[in-house]
Structure formats: structure tokens, C-alpha cells
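User: When convenient, might I ask for sequence and C-alpha cells for a protein?

AI:
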Amino acid sequence: QVQLVESGGGLVQPGGSLRLSCAASGSIDRIYDMSWYRQAPGKQRELVTVIVDGGTTSYIDSVKGRFTISRDSAKNTVYLQMNSLRPEDTAVYYCNARIRVGPTINGYWGQGTQVTVSS
């Protein structure tokens, strides 16, 4: 059984910062890419950023220069540092990871953490 547990969401004023964490646990043989998605009210879930196991990262245009994804492979943890937050960043943020357990590779989701940017 594999679990992804997120933490770090909350309420922040525009221009503020938050750091999200997502820790994977269980019978993990290898973690491939790890990513963050977000879903705002009334909108579809969108991919925000991804980091592959070699360390290469990519971001959607609206967060480039403001968000930074990183990972600690020894801790099976991915982070999302969010700076210069805007009201339009308000959403539930989900982590996702492609994980090999034995011969099988599957995608796993965290439970989501709310980020609200408001004055």
C-alpha cells in the first residue's frame, strides 16, 4: 500500500509565500516523476509543475518564476515553494507520483491541501 500525504496549505495574503510538502510512504521500489496539480472551484484539475527522477522540472506559464518544485529522494518527498502568490492561485493542490511497487507502475494521488490567497 502506498500513501501520499500533503501538508502546508493555508490562507495567505497576495504577495505572500507558502511551502507545500508531499511525502510518499509504503512498499515503494522506485519513484519516477512527481508533480503538483491544482483545482480551483468550478474548474478542471490542471498540472502545475513536474519534476522527473533525474531532476528536470517544468512549469505552466502562469507560475514560472514564482513557484519552485524540488524533491528529496531520500525522504520520498516533493516540495512546492510558492512565492508572490496571487488570488488566482487559490485552489486545492494535489501531489501525484508515479511509483513502482514490484513489477507494477501506477500513479498515486495525495488527499489535497487548500491554498487560499486573499486579503
About this structure: The radius of gyration is 14 Å. The first strand starts at residue 2 and ends at 7. DSSP finds no helices and eleven strands in the chain.
